[in-house]
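user: can you give me the structure for this one chain? C-alpha cells are fine.
assistant: on it. calling the predictor now.
[tool input]
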Amino acid sequence: MTTESGAHETAQPGTPAGGEASRGSVSRVIASLLRRSDFSVVLATVVLFVIFALGSESFLTQYNLFNMGRTAALYVFVAMGQAIVIVIGGMNLSLGAIGGLSVVMAGMAMQDAGLHPVLAFFIALLVGVAAGFANGLIIIKLKLNSFVATLATSFIFVGLVNGISKGNPYTNIPKDLTTIGRGDVFGIPILFVLMILLLTIVAYFFRFSVTGRRILATGGNAEAARLSGIRTDRITVLANVLSGLFAALAGYLWITRVGSAQPSIGSDWLIISFAVAIIGGTSLAGGEISALGLGAAAVMLTLIKNGLIMFNVNVYFEQTFLGIVILLAVSLESFRAIGRRRRRPSRSATAPKEG
C-alpha cells in the first residue's frame, strides 16, 4: 500500500528530515508565488521604486509622492473599465470615448444647466452605463466580436463628444469639486484612498460574490459556463455596463483633478487601460483578474512616467517604454500559461486502461 508524501515513513537517524522539509516548504512557497499572475508586477514595482528613490533626491519628496498617488489612482479607475471586459475574453476600444462623453455631459450639466455637481455626477454615470449597455447589446445581438463592435461605437461616441462640446472645455466648474482630486486625508491623496477602496471591493467581488464568480467562469470557458446554467449573454452585457460605469467614474474624477471638463479627457486612455490591466495580471484569455496586480501596475506605470522625467529621458519615447513593458508582461503571461498546461496531467495518462 502506497502512502502520500511519505506521511507514514519514519525518519532515519542522522537524516536532516526537518531541514529537507523546511527547504521543500520554502520551495513550494516560492513556486506558488511565481505562479501568481500579480507577483512579477509587484516585485518589479518595488524594484523600480527603490531604483528611483536611490537615483533622485526629489523622488521621495511629499509633493512628488502626492502627485504620483493621484495619477496611479486615476489609472486604476481607467484600467478597471478595460479589465472587467478583458476578464470575459473581450475588450473595449471605446473606453476613452465613453469617458470623454461622460465628462462633456457632466460639464454641460454644471456649466450650461447650472446643476449641482452631485446631479452632474449621476448624469455622467448614466451616460457611461447607457454607452456600456449599447456596447453589450450590439455584441450579443449582432454576434459581433468585441473588437469590431467597440471600434465602431468609439467613432460614434467621439463624434458625439466633438459635436456637443465643439472642442471647447467646460471651465465653469464649482471649485469645491476639486477637493476630491486635489485634497488629502492625513497627507494621502483622496483619490488614492478611493483607489484602495475600489480595489478592496473588486477583490471581494471576484472572490466571494456569485456574480463575480460567474464572470470569471464565463471568461475561463464560455461554453462550459453556458452548459452549467450561467446566462453568458447577460454576463457579457453586465461586463460592458460595468466597463462604461468605470469609464464615467474615471472621467468625473479626472474633472476633479484638472478643475475643468475637457473633451480631450479619455483620448489617451486606450494604452493606459490595456497597459495597467495586462501588466496587472488580467489574462487576455479571460477568467483571471488581480486587484493587487492592477494597483501595482498603475503604480509601476506612474513610476515609469515619473522616472523618465527625473532622469531627463526624452519624454517622446514614453510610449516606446510602455510598449516594451506591455510586451514583456504578455510574454510572461504566455510562458506562465505554457507552464500551467505542462503541469496538468495528460488525459491519456489519467484515463483508466481497458481490460
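assistant: here you go. The first strand starts at residue 184 and ends at 185. Strands lie at 184-185, 188-189.
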